[in-house]
Sequence to fold (312 residues):
Amino acid sequence: MAVTEQLKSIGHTISFTCGISARIAKRQACSRIIMYHGVTAATADAFGEQLQYLAANFRIVSPATMLANLVHNGSPAADEMVLTFDDGLRNNLTVVYPLLKKFNAPATFFVCPGLLGSGRWLWNHEARCRLQTLGRESRLELARNLGATSHTVEGIISWMKELKLQERRRVEDVLRVRTRHYTASHQQREAFDIMSWDELRSLDPALITIGSHTFSHPILTALTDEQLEFELCESRRALEEKLNRPVDYFCYPNGSYDTRVHRAVTAAYSAAFTTESGVVKNGQSHDLHRLPRIPAAETPALMAWRLHRPGA
Fold:
């Protein structure tokens, strides 16, 4: 770790331990939405510490409670905290859910119904794990053959995100052929396996809100109008039909949207969550379909710091 990063980490720890981070955050008088994804057994203790800190210093509420204040009062209630978890990962059930129940902390799980119970992962998780099995020369050859703009693992993933849906799926098929001997490790399955429908139904509706993360997790800006409508509307229809509960909220995959996507999401859902860093402040006009979130952190100290410095 560089000296600058070490000093920052020490500062975060001191602020957390002394309660400075909590005091500064509370003085800001705003609502916050935290963006989590997966929490494995290896990171469960750190997540539990974060949850304990949040429960002790803020009011963890459902998105419906936070949004009601915005709509009816024109401003968020101070010290409200909303917890969100993207992707419908099975570890949200096995690791996260017991801790949420322990602290009676409501949360929202954004899921893709097209993946539930399918045995498949999000396409980017699978592609990344497969690419990681290839050496540099093999990735160079693959990138040249595909016309990719980069040969690094993350570079190829970023390039794939820009492709039209059918082309991206073709690239996925090529990658599966090139890595046909790949088998997911226990650690990878723990990180990326998706919940089943029965597991999703087992979550207490009083504690867990279910939101849509599209039907199959494509990059929405790369879709045709017809594909976009399917991903938004079929996702909501399937979730509401199979869970027998309303699905009013949406989360943009990869945080990607443009004017066309935003318009379609606004027509289909009551509110939508982005990956843009920020808090919901008093005195601001709020687009309920561009709600900012604070990215989760690896440590409780950094999480506490980000509550008043979201971009840290």
About this structure: Strands lie at 32-36, 59-60, 80-86, 107-111, 208-212, 249-251, 271-277, 291-295. The chain has a mean pLDDT of 92. The first helix runs from residue 3 to 18. Residues 28 and 285 are 17 Å apart (CA to CA).
